[in-house]
Amino acid sequence: MKKKLIIGLVIAALFITYSARVYYVNATSLKVVKVEYEVGQTVEYKDFLYTLKSTKILNVDELNQEFKLKIRNDLYDVKYIVSEIEMEYTGDKDSAQCLLLNANFQSGAWSNGESADAFFQMNTNSMKLEKGKKYTFYTAGGLGKIMFTDDDWKKVNNMKFELVIATYPEEIVLKCN
Amino acid sequence: MRQLIKNEMQRAFKNKKFLIVILIECIIVVMHFRNNVWPMYSKTIPFFKSMVDTEKGMDYIPGAYYVWLGIKASPFRTVIFAIIPILAAIPYGATLYTDIKTNYITNIAVRYDKKAYYFSKLVTMFVSGGIIGAFPFVLSFLTNATILPLEKVIPATTTFMGQLSVFSNVFYSNTLLYVLFYLIVVFVGFGIINCFCFLAAYLFENRFVVMMTPFTIYFAMYVIGNFMGKRNISPWLYLRLNDVNRNDIGKILTQVGIAIVIIIAGYLIKSSRKADVL
To answer: A89, B121, B215, B244: which could form a disulfide with B85 (CB 3.0–4.6 Å)?
Structure first.
């Protein structure tokens, strides 16, 4: 009886110590909070104002036709999510390099970076943004059929997408639709 | 029946072999901790944190999930998944075989219903296989959590799994729940695999062969799967939940179903009135 009591007390003490330690580690660490912005809302991040104006999902032919691009369509079934973003530099310098290519699209467990190929074909204006001037950029992310199940691929045009412009210490997302 | 199961559980868990198996698993988890978790905590994370306020910034600070043995691709994860079926069978897998060879089974058959005896054997094989299978992953998670926070995982920054992985939405929305699913899959998977010792006890005339049967099946399915270009549907890979493709779920469940049917059929045959024990 006494032996069982001692074992029980030791286990309880270990459990309390362990729980306190885990609580301390989590309480003292930075929590990443997700901050969402709706279509049309403006967010300031690292001296830039971002406003996501609109988003559409296009197949390669539609993308090539609408933006007069030459994206190849012979690898696998692919679509592109294309967002129109208004940017403005608000920092101390006269101008700064556009950082939009660091962003990622995501939806559920899917994510993909922007297509640099499509980005530079769609945006012929300068990548240097002058202070106080508004610029419109188009950014595209590839949606490959191989990244989805057949059922999800059928519903891909209706999925909710986000453009993630920062992930730490805050997750800043612009809702695409 | 309850007494039989209690006795068999004691045979499975109150023995030196079980402690040795747990010790081997502890050593692997400690090595994983020493090689992956501690350097992450003491060197990589402080460096990443120092980068947060710089112009380049930082996308992600790894935490307990990132270096968890179940997810982190490391040699220790490969080793543990390779040897679990062997470890799981060591403490209890061959006890039915030894019961037959030592005539212990005849003593039991006099006192108890043989159905109850075989059922208790099967349940204990399942539970001991499951516990030995899940233990290193539980231990790894608990040890990681003592020094690393349970971080928020974001699809845009992590490459653990994509849309095609099973429960990937749960992983990104409720990671702790995903860990629980992972542990349940590992427990059930290795529990079922360990139950093949039950059939092997009547098929083979060597204790070592009986103990090695779960591993042989486990490894053979991987080899055959590789030859057929379908290695994703071998338990060696699909018991790592984050590597399971949603398109393969039907085939995997069919395979698990067949395994359960074979084990239950073996149990029913041995428990039938026609089958002799004495």
So the answer is: B215
Kind and range of the H or E element at A84? strand A78-89
With left for phi above 0 and alpha for psi between -120 and 50, is residue A106 left, alpha or beta? beta
Query: Residue A172, SS3?
Result: strand
pTM of the model: 0.90
Q: Which of B149, B152, B155 sits opposite A111 (nearest CB)?
A: B155
For residue B54, give the amino acid letter.
T
Sheet of strand A110-113: strand arrangement? A33-37, A170-175, A162-166, A104-107, A110-113
How high is the ipTM of this complex? 0.85
Per-residue model confidence (pLDDT) at position B141: 97
Per mean pLDDT, which range of A138-147, B213-222, B256-265 is the poorest?
A138-147
**Residue B157 · residue B60 · CB < 8 Å:** yes
- The torsion region of residue A38 among left (phi > 0), alpha (psi -120 to 50) and beta comes to beta
Angle made by CA atoms A66, A69, A75, in degrees to the nearest 5: 110
Q: Give the DSSP per-residue string, B14-27.
A: SSHHHHHHHHHHHH
Q: Do B156 and A32 touch (CB under 8 A)?
A: no
What are the mean pLDDT values of chain A's consecutive 10-residue runs (177 residues total)?
91 96 94 93 91 92 85 80 92 84 87 85 82 90 88 90 90 92
Contact B157, A106 (CB under 8 A): no
Nearest CA in chain A to B145: A22
- Give pLDDT tens digits for B17-54: 999 999 999 999 999 999 999 999 999 999 988 888 88
Hey, what amino acid is at A107? S
Confidence of residue B185 (pLDDT cuts 50, 70, 90): very high
Q: Which positions 15-54 of B are in contact with A (Cβ < 8 Å)?
A: 52
Helix orientation angle between B114-147 and B249-271, rounded to the nearest 10 degrees: 140
Closest approach of B20 to chain A, Cα-based (Å): 22
Question: Exposed, middle or buried by CB within 10 Å (0-12, 13-18, 19+), for A152?
Answer: middle
Q: Phi first, then psi: give them for residue A89, nearest 5 degrees.
A: -90, 130
Whether residue A26 lies within 8 A of chain B, CB to CB, comes out as yes
Residues of chain B neighbouring A32 (CB-CB closer than 8 A):
151-152, 154
Q: Both ends of chain A: CA-CA distance in Å?
A: 65
- pLDDT for position A82: 93
Alpha-carbon distance of A105 to A99, in angstroms, equals 15
